[in-house]
Structure formats: C-alpha cells, structure tokens
Amino acid sequence: MTSPQPDLDADITEKLRSPKYRRYVLAVLVVVYIFNFLDRQIVTILAEPIKLDLGLSDTQIGLMTGLAFAIFYTGFGIPLARLADRASRVNIITGALVIWSGMTALCGIAQNFVQILAARIGVGVGEAGASPPAHSLIADYYPPSERASALSIYALGIPIGSLLGLLAGGWVAEFYGWRTAFLVVGLPGVILAVLFKLTIKEPIRGMSDAGGAGDQSQPPLVSTIKTLLTNKTILHIAMGGALTSFVGYGLGQWLPAFFIRLHGMGLAEVATYYGLVNGIASMAGTFLGGTLADRYANRDMRVYAWLPAAGVLISFPFYLAALIVNDWMIAIAILLVPSFLNSLWLGPAFGTVQNLAPQRMRALASAILLFILNIIGLGFGPFLVGVLSDLLAGPFGEESLRYAIIFATAGYFWAGAHFLLAAKTLVADLKAAGQEDPAPAAP
User: Fold this and answer.
1) What's the pTM value of the predicted model, to 2 decimals?
2) What element of type H or E holds 382?
3) Burial environment of residue 152 by CB neighbours within 10 A (0 to 12, 13 to 18, 19 or more)
4) For 160-175, what is the mean pLDDT?
5) Closest by alpha carbon to 84, among 367, 373, 370, 375?
6) What are the structural domains of the chain?
7) CB neighbours of 267 closer than 8 A, spacing ≥ 6?
8) Which tens digit of pLDDT belongs to each residue from 31-48?
C-alpha cells in the first residue's frame, strides 16, 4: 500500500506557508522574545535597591547581571542549538520559556548574593533555548529576501522587553518592592509557554529556501563550527555585533544607575523617561534596520554591513554628549539619536548569518553568533563597567560611573571597523551560499 505521507507533507507545508499563519508565528515569537528580554533586563532598573538591600558592590552587580549570566547563557546555547538543528524547535522554546520564567520569579525570594546569583544563572540557562531555534524557525517560514526584515521584527522583542522591564520593574518596585517586581514579570511566562506549544507548528526544514529541503543529515559539530567561523563575513559580523553588544549591555545596565546617582532621579522617573525614550527609539531602529537593508539590497548587498557600521560609528558623539551634560532632561533627549542608531545592526546581521548558514546549521549559527556577542557583550560589558566604576571611586567618587561608561562607549569604533570588513566579503560569500538574489519572493 502506498504511503500518503508525501501528499500530507505537501498539504501541511502549503498551510504553513500562508502569509497569515507565518505572520502569526512571527508575532508569537516576538512575544516570547519580549518575555525573554523583560526577564533579562528587569534587573537593570532593580540594581540599586538590590544593591542596598543585599549590601552588594558594583562589581557583584556587574557579575550577577553580566559575566555569570553570560557564561551559562552562552554555554548552554551551543548544545541547545545543536539539538534544535535536529529536534523540535517548538518543544525546545516551550521548555526554555518555562525555565527562565520560573527562575525569574525565584529571584524575588533571594536573601543574599549567592542565591540571587544562582537564580540569575538559571534565567540564563533557560534563555539559552530561545533565540537559536527561533531564528531557525523564522528562516524556514521566510525566504532569504525577507529574512532580515522578519528577524528585525523578531528583534523588536529586545527594546520592547527592555522597556517593559524598566517600566514594570521601576513602578512595581517603587510601590511594592523589588522582590514583588520579579514575581510579577516571571510567572506569566509559564502561561505563554502553554499557548506557544498549542498553536505553533514545526515546519519542514528548508521550506522557504529556493531549492527546498536539502540534506537532512546533521554534519558533525566540529566541522560545523569550523565551516561557520572560517567564513570571514560571519566572523566579522559576529565581532561587530559582540563589540556593539559590549557597549549596549554596559549602557543598558548602568545608565539607570547613572541617572539615579548623578541626577538624583527616582526609580519610577528613570523607568518612565529614560525607559520610554530608549525603548521607542530602539524599536524604530530595530525595525527599520532590517526593512531598509532588505529594500536597498537590490542596489548593493553590502548595505547589510554598511548600515550597522554607520549606526554604531555615528552613535558615539551623541552618547558622549548625553553623559557630560548636567541636565537630565537634555541628556535623555539626546539619547533618542544613539538609541535609534545603535539598533540598526540587529536585523541585517542576523539575517545575513541565516542566509549564509546551511539549513542544518542555522540554529547553531545563531548560537555561535550569540555566544560570541554575549560572552564579550553581555559578559564583559556590565561587569567591566562595574569594575572600572569601583576602581575610579577613590579619585572621582560617584562621578566614577560617568567615566566608566564613557570609556566603554568608545568600543563602537572597534565594532564599526568589523562591520566595514564584513562588507568586503559579504557579496562573494552570499553568492557562494546560493542566496545572492535579493528580489522579493512571491507571497
């Protein structure tokens, strides 16, 4: 008896290709990513009350929010991405969401540094299972010419989640304490996990590629890593993203404390004014980065690297101006510009990596990119700014945080250089990967 499976697969694939359903998938993935960053970034606005309540130093705050979190986040990211390249990505994201949401809630009952450090490590372990399989899912639901735009929309979870983390953390902590804030943002993620599992379908790998599904066997781990890291475009994009993240996470962690210490603002004030300005500008930059890159790629595909380079290089003088003015309202107004510019890189960078990576390496490609940018960015950005702030406290007092942040922001020049180097090899590498045609695919 002939098996009906090929026709069944074709029917299912046709339904999953429908614009309406793939938009739904992308929307739910954005909500998952919002929770990812909400739970990750809420600690930035709560750093000062946690420090005072538990008696911590800036170095310990930087370790808890940066290096320790990043080590476990990136360390678990590689094996989970490897699993996502051969197993159900929907199941992996569902389980990861339950873990990081539960560990976020546990932060609210920590009584000392060790306990809150352990809970934050648990958040990192859970969040490691989100983006690599999500990027892989998006690459199967969207064709190459639309991936930068789709991944930019997905990346909106970063500014939206960060904004909600600041607002929820600041206002809840202002009236009910920092412990309640962790509980309020952590527990709803478990409900979202159930919705995700019940409504998101696992697509056939390669469903939206021009050649369809390719070889479904998974290549060995070592050869996969070698293939990805010997690609000059991927390597330079990874380093550019890592150094951009170094500055971004350093600023994200310490700018709320900067406004509280040096401008005398309250938690709710910082959450509202800085949070809204940074969040709205970052959303605009994140969305337009991928959209503009996909639109102008038919003129010159190097726009996928040029746009991120321009964004980070132009950001520096605006950050410098915001950090040295004495009026907090002027400082926050100035931050509108660099918050927009330094978000342009996300969609083009992740979209290019997904287009360059073979089908069975896509989740791992994202994990490797996230490993590099999070070890350098998330790991050392908040941590080194905290260490430098402590070291400068003797001669500069509370002003030490201002100078520590300024020093870290200079990393944008190094990041811009890597994006410009990626532009030199990008066209040739995309042609070699068979993804050189930027013309829009039919819906």
Assistant:
1) 0.73
2) helix 380-396
3) buried
4) 86
5) 367
6) 20-206+219-432 (1.20.1250.20)
7) 45, 48, 49, 169, 170, 171, 173, 174, 260
8) 999 999 898 888 888 888
